[in-house]
Amino acid sequence: SESPEERPISQRLLVVANRLPVSAVRRGEDSWSLEISAGGLVSALLGVKEFEARWIGWAGVNVPDEVGRKALTEALAEKRCIPVFLDEETVHQYYNGYCNNILWPLFHYLGLPQEDRLATTRSFQSQFAAYKKANQMFADVVLEHYEEGDVVWCHDYHLMFLPKCLKEYNSEMKVGWFLHTPFPSSEIHRTLPSRSELLRAVLAADLVGFHTYDYARHFVSACTRILGLEGTPEGVEDQGRLTRVAAFPIGIDSGRFIRALAIPEVQENIKELKARFAGRKVMLGVDRLDMIKGIPQKILAFEKFLEENPDWRDKVVLLQIAVPTRTDVPEYQKLTSQVHEIVGRINGRFGTLTAVPIHHLDRSLDFHGLCALYAITDVALVTSLRDGMNLVSYEYVACQDSKKGVLILSEFAGAAQSLGAGAILVNPWNITEVAAAIGQALKMPPEEREKRHLHNFQHVTTHTAQQWAEFFVSEMNDTVIEAQQRIRK
Ligand code: ADQ
Which intervals of the chain form a coiled coil (predicted)? Predict the structure, then answer.
């Protein structure tokens, strides 16, 4: 077997995720334009350069015709991307349905859909069937491009069935699976009708990774309690076969953010923003507009702070940048109007003819714009109700070297485990506590700010996305070697 020293320096890696890191827009019958898309996984893997990585995933568009498919495949090949083509019905049932309506809320402790249980159960079955079918389609594309020795790294809750599909094709394939969301308590997971089938499918992988030790522990408990398997410090054992389970906390490419701050255009932007908000402290929220991010709770806490601290009303501003996602799902539409309503009320209540306390933007910012905003921010507010990790908190810390701003962070974000000592940790459900944390952050003496910031900055710059990926892949190689040795014994 190969020893670590003999391993090729640049290993071929097949990264399989629901979405490719680019969005495709059709410009003509056989022409496409491609754009890098926003999101946590994309941000993390952009930082990984050690491997000869190929991406396999859905391009986010329906391409029914052969001419279009061929042209898109060629355009994507230049970006080392390989498309999986999903038809509209599959996207509806698998992506909108099973992934985003069932698994996403469940894994974030929001429970299964409640309304009309009978219809839910019926549609549940067809959605689960579509989920399995879609995972099989991803497996087919992986198999087409797989070469012996490749590491196949499956990502996230969309592809829990993929390890099983791949191992059925080829039991020698090195397969890893990483979950970007929390894995909930086994008591939550056991409510899922397909709980056992999903767990067994994931266990087909050689290595299963989570952001935190707690999520890994929840997964092992689900396997022991629901499947009756044996949990060990190494992972989960089923009839002598071990699936290794471990925590791999993700990071960001911190250097990319730090370097961006030195770019003249960004410097110019920083100057303009500083002038724009001169005399006021800037608080910032950057989130996808999703119920897990606790945006209404955050804004209500800010309202409470303004209510209780009249002196601060014209001295602080909250900038909330919320990118709309999953806009065709009714729950997300409801959330958008709810947030708009609260913001409108607060601005009506506390605004003056010249200034409003909240600027709420329903859109994405480009990378440089985002860096400039992070750089001028005095207090960042991350109040996720649950969040696998939360990279916004990391990005903010990376951009804070001159300012040494304060991070208010939900204890329910994975990042609380790594940035907890530097941040002010809060329970986002407790509006009074968050309002008090806002006051504490705004008034924090410079020495304390610096001490807290240094702690976080140290962590963010030494636990990068690149190291995360290297750690996962090297652990996968070791796991496979150990498994081979075990079989030989
Ligand atoms: P997300 O839920 O997308 O990721 P997060 O980790 O915060 O959450 O990453 C969001 C990314 O999108 C960041 O890189 C951020 O800069 C960018 N972004 C967000 N809002 C933006 C805006 N308005 N404009 C521009 N860019 C914006 C999922 C999980 C997380 C986990 C990651 C990675 O939900 O818990 O940390 O995957 O594993």
Answer: none
